[in-house]
Structure prediction request, 244 residues.
Amino acid sequence: MVGDLFWNIKYNLDFWRKNVHISDNVLHAAFEVGACKVLSCLSICIFPDKTTYPTAETMSHSGQPHSSNFGYSHAKRMIDVQNRAYFQQPGCTFTAVIPTNVFRPHDNFNIEDGHVLPGLIHKVRLAKSSGSALMVWGTGKPRRQFIYSLDLAQLFIWVPWEYSKVEPVILSVGEEDEVSIREAAEAVVEAMDFHGEATFDTTKSDGQFKKTASNSKLRTYLPDFRFTSFKQAVKETCAWFTDN
Ligand code: GFB
Prediction:
């Protein structure tokens, strides 16, 4: 069960229960059928809210996650605990990756529970057709490292073949590629060719200010991996949304 900041704030219990049940079920079923490898997906929100940056894989359990998504974050942290236990007891090599904020064509573009980029793309489309202003939620100051799903998919395929450890690996663009929500909104506005006004609703939550992660571990394995540029990925996602 996944959702944006606001869906997480509302449904911490459901995020905890559904995800713990899903992971336990999948991992135990994999163990029972003798699967040689399982790749689970954690999330960048597992890292502590109060921390030094950039965060690294070794800090996955270091302190309390941001209060907005404590249900989801703890459920995701437990996958790492469970992977280590499956290794210690029956000797399974189940592992996990920690992607940053993902976006894509075929994303969940619902304004209610979709993440910030698909939400903004949908809102720009509506603002364009009604001639109204674009409302960006929060101050626009928080910062995020976005990863394009097509890049992430390539890395997902690399992991089971080439990465043989139980410890998770962060899948992220570099620290220098982090953007503010305002910059993300500007990229959407440009890609959607929107010329109307943009305003910020500061009554809405900003969520965690930033979650800057280090991709050094990934880079030790794949020093030459090329990520799609943020602007290009936003352009492709906007084009897909408009066409579909
Ligand atoms: O993608 P998002 O909801 O997730 O982004 P998080 C939230 C940030 O974008 C906040 C701002 O700073 C919002 O104020 N924002 C601006 C908007 N306009 C919009 C909009 O139209 N829609 C949305 N949703 N936000 C989630 C976590 O955090 O990300 C999950 O809660 C998970 O647990 C996931 O880790 C990757 O990055 O804040």
